[in-house]
Amino acid sequence: MSKLLDYLNHLDRDATAREAHQQDPQKSMTQFGLSSVEQQTLMTGDKAAIATLAGIDASELPKVNVTNIDETY
Questions:
Q1: Quick check: 61 and 51 in contact, CB under 8 A?
Q2: What pLDDT, on the 0 to 100 scale, is given for residue 2?
Q3: What is the pLDDT of residue 60?
Q4: What predicted TM-score, i.e. pTM, was given to this entire model?
Q5: Of 18, 37, 43, the residue nearest 28 (C-alpha)
Q6: 55 near 5, Cβ under 8 Å?
Q7: How far is 21 from 28, CA to CA, in rounded Å?
Q8: Tens-place pLDDT, residues 16-66
Q9: SS3 string of the chain?
Q10: How many whole angstroms separate alpha carbon 50 and alpha carbon 3?
């Protein structure tokens, strides 16, 4: 299993880890041991690219949660 997939599963199971990721994704991913390529790919939200790096089919991933912080809408 890839480190990226381990991280995604970790976030899925652990509310504290999700909160840490939401507060400081870079720090959280670095502490978990993700490579810079894994971090950059995850931050793009590109489901196909994330799945490829994780070694799974994109259909196995849940919807990527991207929050729009632009309050002009």
A1: yes
A2: 86
A3: 83
A4: 0.77
A5: 18
A6: yes
A7: 5
A8: 999 999 999 999 999 999 999 999 999 998 989 999 998 988 888 776 555
A9: CCHHHHHHHHHHHCHHHHHHHHHCHHHHHHHHCCCHHHHHHHHHCCHHHHHHHHCCCHHHCCCCCCCCCCCCC
A10: 12
